[in-house]
Design brief:
about 375 residues, mainly alpha, two-stranded antiparallel ribbon
Length: about 375
């Protein structure tokens, strides 16, 4: 309320009532008529607390937006990296025709910059349409910032894939990674984890990082909600904060979780597609379809559990630094980790559905 008045009039306004008074000990000297020295506890309200809380919430919003950008950059970078892996033969042919490695890297980076520019323009246009339809006030600065921000994010995310596209000799790029040891008699969990820890370690690390950031954000929001309960919600200021902060934060946390799961899905799907011929050979030799499904589920679960555990550890660390209650800290970290680990299983649904629809004979025929 005080913040709304200050924004509308430019006056310095503060509301003392509902400012979450803190207990202060007051020492009273002995009186002249025999009263002994006393220590009294009074509730003192600090002026300016409403503005300070609002500034803190705005700083948290900026930090959350920054975290969402990091997760988005991870998704874009992983998508570009997987695209480079799929286009190895194309880049090898260009290298064989005389293209230097630097030129190949510049091609990938230019594609990412153009993609970021297109997304930024689409975001700005969507913002204008949404403001007109919902009768909201247009923010020209935000619309102008969206274009360069999306372009820079895509450019940064595409740096590593561009370097990956330029590595290796022409023959190595054309040949690709080669066959894995799927016929070596190992168990399915060992095959799945060996793939993630070996040839797929970069993509698996990016997927786990995205899940970890989403777990940290979800756990942090839950911890804030539990910390506010019974402390600020009983005051006017607490009502203001809970009404305006929690739904927005939860929506951002949900969006981050969705982006993280998409990143894990890409890892599992690309792992299946690049090993589709080998898996089709195994199915032709007697492997049941459920074995392939179990392989995909194991990979998505491993990435999800790794990221969720790291995110939960970060939530516990943050809660201890903020001197929160250990019960609320452990509950928030556990709920966030279990939720993200469970949601990570959804990453295997798409690849599993595709594997069930694909005939082993057709996959082997296309490879000939």
């Amino acid at each position: 309320m005080a913040a709304d008045i200050a924004a509308a009039t430019g006056l310095e306004v503060d509301i003392v009532v509902g400012s979450s008074p803190q207990p202060m000990s007051i020492e009273l000297a002995a009186g002249k008529f025999g009263r002994p020295a006393l220590t009294a506890t009074e509730g003192w309200a600090v002026k300016g607390v409403a503005i300070r809380f609002l500034e803190a919430v705005q700083a948290q919003d900026i930090a959350i937006f920054g975290l969402v950008l990091v997760v988005a950059a991870i998704l874009v970078g992983e998508t570009a990296y997987l695209s480079v892996r799929r286009r190895r033969r194309e880049f090898g042919i260009l290298r064989a025709l005389g293209w230097p490695a630097v030129r190949v890297a510049f091609l990938v980076e230019l594609e990412m910059l153009l993609l970021g520019l297109a997304v930024g323009l689409a975001a700005a246009l969507s913002g204008v349409v949404a403001a007109l339809v919902l009768h909201l006030e247009l923010q020209p600065v935000l619309l102008l910032v969206a274009v360069p921000l999306a372009t820079v994010t895509a450019g940064i995310a595409g740096a590593a894939p561009a370097l990956a596209a330029s590595r290796g000799t022409t023959l190595q790029v054309i040949q690709g990674p080669g066959l894995s040891n799927l016929l070596g008699g190992a168990t399915i969990p060992r095959l799945a984890l060996g793939e993630l820890l070996g040839y797929r370690r970069v993509e698996a690390l990016l997927g786990a990082l995205g899940v970890g950031l989403a777990t940290f954000l979800v756990g942090g929001i839950v911890l804030i909600v539990l910390g506010f309960r019974g402390v600020l919600d009983t005051t006017l200021l607490g009502t203001f904060l809970s009404a305006r902060v929690q739904p927005f934060h939860l929506a951002i946390a949900g969006l981050t979780a969705v982006v993280a799961i998409i990143a894990v899905t890409e890892v599992v799907a690309m792992s299946y597609l690049e090993r589709q011929v080998e898996l089709a050979a195994l199915r032709a030799l007697g492997w049941p379809q459920r074995a392939v499904a179990f392989l995909l589920i194991t990979q998505s679960t491993a990435i999800g559990l790794t990221g969720a555990a790291a995110g939960a550890l970060a939530v516990v660390t943050m809660g201890m630094l903020l001197q929160g209650g250990m019960g609320a800290i452990l509950l928030s970290a556990t709920l966030a980790a279990l939720a993200m680990a469970a949601i990570s299983l959804l990453a295997a649904v798409g690849p599993m559905a595709y594997s069930y629809r694909t005939s082993p004979a057709l996959a082997l025929k296309e490879d000939l």
